[in-house]
Amino acid sequence: MATESAPSPLLARINEFNEKVAARGTVVFGSMWAFYVFFVWGLLAFVPQLAHWKETILLISSAWIQLWALPLLMVGGIVLNRASEKRAEEDHETITKEFELVKANQVTQVTELAEARVTRAEMHDLARLIPDIVARLERIEARLAERG
Question: Which pLDDT score is estimated for 3?
Fold first, then answer.
C-alpha cells in the first residue's frame, strides 16, 4: 500500500510558483488585451514593409505561440478550477450552516406557536367559565345581602 508523502519544501515552492504562473498566465492570456495583441500580430504578415518577415511572423503565430499557450491554458484552467471548487465547497459549507440555523429557528418558532395555541385554547376555556363564575358570585353576593 503506497502512502503519499509531503513534497520537499523546495518542490512545494516550485509547485506553488508554477501554479501562480499558470493561473496568472491563463488570466492574462484569456484577456481581451491578449486577443488584440495576437490579432495585430496576425495582421503584421500582411504589411508590405514586413514582407520579408512574413514567414517568421506566420511561424511564430501558428506554431510557437500554440506550443506554449496550450499547456499554459490547460494547467491554468486546472489551477483556476481547483480554486473555484474550493470556493464552492466553502460556500456550500456556509450555506449548509445557515440552513441549519434557519431550520433550528423555524423549529423553535413552530414550538412557540404550538405553545401559544395551547395557551390561547386554555384562555378561551377560562373565558367561557367567566359568565358562570360571575353568576355564582352574584348569587353569593345576593345571599350575603339577604343575611346582612
Answer: 56
Is the Cβ–Cβ distance between 29 and 72 less than 8 Å?
A: yes
Contacts of 111 (CB under 8 A, 6+ apart): none
Cα–Cα distance, 9 to 15 (Å, whole number): 10
Q: What is the pLDDT of residue 97?
A: 95
Q: In the chain, count H helices and then E strands.
A: 4, 0
Q: How far is CA 148 from the centre of its chain?
A: 82
DSSP 47: -
**Tens-place pLDDT, residues 69-85:** 778 778 888 888 888 89
* Length, in residues, of the chain: 148
**What is the pTM for the complete model shown?**
0.47
**Domain locations in the chain as residue ranges:** 9-147
Q: How far is CA 35 from the centre of its chain?
A: 31
Distance between CA atoms of 99 and 3, rounded to whole angstroms?
Answer: 38
Q: What is the maximum alpha-carbon separation in the chain?
A: 135
